[in-house]
Amino acid sequence: MNRGVVGLAGLLTLLLCAGAAWAQADRTDPKTAADPIVKQLEAFRRNDFDTAFTFASGTIQAQFDRQDFETMVRRGYPEIARSTFAAVTRTELEAPGLAYVTVKIRGATGQGIEALYEMVWEDGWKINGVATRPDGGVI
Fold this sequence. Notes:
Largest sheet: 4 strands, antiparallel
CATH topology: Nuclear Transport Factor 2, Chain: A
Strand content: 25-35%
Strand order of the largest sheet: 1-2-3-4
Shape: globular
Order of helices and strands: HHHHHHHEEEE
CATH class: Alpha Beta
Number of strands: 4
Number of domains: 1
Helix content: 40-55%
Low-confidence stretches: 5-24
Mean pLDDT: 86
């Protein structure tokens, strides 16, 4: 076999292994689980519910079509739908591929909430649910 072909095959193998290791690292790194939340909140601020919907898990997407998702978020989570500020305060890995992320959010009305997001790994972190409670602290 040609040395150039062998070298190329070796390089491709190395890149594939490195990519698999990186994907595994993200799956076990709770800090990366916060990224889709931040991106979803940014999409909500732009009123871009199409993009926001892409950050939802397969389970959520099976429960809601895109329009029903928007309605659910606007009615059930107004501070999230129209936030002016958000800060990730805690990330916790429950198991590989399952993380919980706590975010303090201030809505457009000035109301503050603390949101606990459940994140699942589906070829990348996806939002699988959120529970909120009022947050009287300064955010």
